[in-house]
User: Fold this.
Amino acid sequence: MIAAMKNLAWLLLASLTWSAAAQTNTVISFTNAAGKLIANAEVVRVFPNKLFYLAASGGGTIRLGDLPPALQRKFGYNPTNAATADTKDEVEEQAHLQAMYDHQLLASQLFQIEMFRHRVFKTCRIVWGGVVKKLPGGLLVDSGEEMVAPAVASEPEFEAHGNSTTTHKTEADEAREPGALCKGQVFLADYPGYDSAVVGDYVQILAYRMGDYDYQAAPGGQKTVRKFTAGFDKAFAALP
Assistant:
């Protein structure tokens, strides 16, 4: 993977250099380190330790120290200057690779965050119903009230929310999709109006699943219900 990144970094650097550098109009022929003859290569740019060229077979780079002595003299090759340039190249290459790695890491982290956000969103339900009990840190809500047309709700004989004890709905009656109406008794945490809420009040809010909640049900015995939070950040932070 590192080798691939280094090759990619070199290609990017070379392409930028070739596009930005003025043509030298110098044409040379030489045999590279692999023993292949590179004929009529146009020198694109010369550095203290190497040069870039373009040939019929494509572009490339060769170290000045690998050129024949005549070409070394032509391009002013100096071993000390070449070593200094090598050190500089290594530092710049490492910095470039680090920047690429950091960018990929950030992209990966952002992707993971978006995946987590999607997981939370998939659990969202509309908790809509009456407060059955006020418990420490949240409300026990009998959710499942259906929407009523305004014309019906305005009739004098209409009871705003019907039976204040139970809707007789359960999770089995609930649509399995984000934003569906939550049905059944649930524990609602982080409700903005918790402090002033009393039994018999009605809540209507978009909430997110946060596991289950156990409480002592009257007249006795423990009961487990689904737990929801009105805070998206709370649900996000609670993800395993």
Residues 1-11, 16-23, 148-165 have pLDDT under 50 and may be disordered. Helices lie at 2-20, 69-74, 79-122, 150-153, 232-237. The chain is about 35% helix and 30% strand. Residues 123-237 form one domain.
